Amino acid sequence: MKYELDLFGIVIPSLLLWGVVAGVLTRIASKLLMRAGVYRAVWHPALFDFALYVCMVTGLVFVSKEFLS
User: Fold this and answer.
1) Which helix (H) or strand (E) holds 65?
2) Threshold 0.90, pTM exceeds
3) What does DSSP assign to residue 56?
4) 16: number of CA atoms within 13 Å, CB side?
5) How many CB atoms lie under 10 A from the CB of residue 22?
């Protein structure tokens, strides 16, 4: 995994990019889980969403390290 990305001459940390992508994916997954009725069995939806976000960031960083390096 590269630690910094050059985006049109601006150097940004790669974790910021993966965090934004994970935020979008988490939002989509949250909407799908809400439609499926999963949130009725969840005790604390905000905590569940945060855990889902952390899992998404971790997964994206792992996948990028394995396949994009």
Assistant:
1) helix 45-67
2) no
3) H
4) 9
5) 22
- Which two structure tokens, joined as six digits, stand for 51? 């855990």
Cα(57)–Cα(34) distance, integer angstroms: 21
Expressed in angstroms, the distance from the first to the final Cα of the chain is: 5
Compute the distance between CA of residue 12 and CA of residue 26 in angstroms, rounded to an integer.
22
pLDDT in tens, 3-18: 787 778 888 888 898 9
Could you give the count of Cα atoms lying within 13 Å of 30 in the half-sphere of its Cβ?
Answer: 17
Check if the beta carbon of residue 69 is closer than 8 Å to that of residue 1.
yes
Burial of 7: CB neighbours in 10 Å, binned 0-12, 13-18, 19+ = exposed
Strand, coil or helix: 9: coil
Amino acid at site 24 = V
